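It is worth pausing here to work through a concrete case rather than discussing structure prediction in the abstract. The textbook approach is simple: state the sequence, then state the predicted structure, then interpret. We follow exactly that order.
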Amino acid sequence: MKRIIMAAMVVLLSASTMTAQINTDDILDSLINDVQQGKDVENVEISLEQSTALQHRLLVIGDDQLQGIGPILYNYAYATGYTIFTSIWVESTTKKWAFSSDLRQLIKKVKPTFVIVCLGTHDLAGGDIPTRAQAVKTIMEDIGDIPFVWIGPVEVKTISEDPGVVPMLRKTVGEDRFYDSYNLRLAREDEIHPTAEACQKWVDSFVEWLGSTETALPIHFDTPKAVLPFKNVETHKASYQGKKR
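Step two, the predicted structure:
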């Protein structure tokens, strides 16, 4: 059944009137529960005047790097009043997402106003750049007219040189929609994954870029004042093959 969820952030009124509050954490729990059950999520409407609108519904998809940066993005989104849905597919590549229907189904369920893609790290180990470029184009076609940005891969310590993935992503996605992470100096837990502190640095830098005029559609994020438990919509193991197109 289609639903319209009425929501509002804290509204500060004059001393002569009461303060209206609706718990946006409960709203997010409800939305995530609907998505996990395969239900379509309808548009969020703001019913109280002078409220801070839930201006964006963010869909964030990508590989296991999201296990590090996803919780930080979640806190940024929550602090700003955005709803955020993350889908983590461990060791996924551009080709895995392009050859499956997972993204299209997520978009249908979540109805995002903005999409963030975090892919490319596991593409660095392979060649066949033309096929990967076509995969990126397929992902962009699945996103359609929804505004999006792409977080590029960080350097992998066991790979001496990028085989051409980063330039391909920049060219295919577009300079103003591609955040280049490759040359960031990030401490590592292992050859691939940055430490928690490094992930914070990574996301802080990305958020600053996303709010700048360097991007196609700047988005502002407020600085989180608290660290909240990460509420992820779904996580797929590396063995996951994706849903058929």
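Step three, interpretation. The first strand starts at residue 5 and ends at 7. DSSP finds seven helices and eight strands in the chain.
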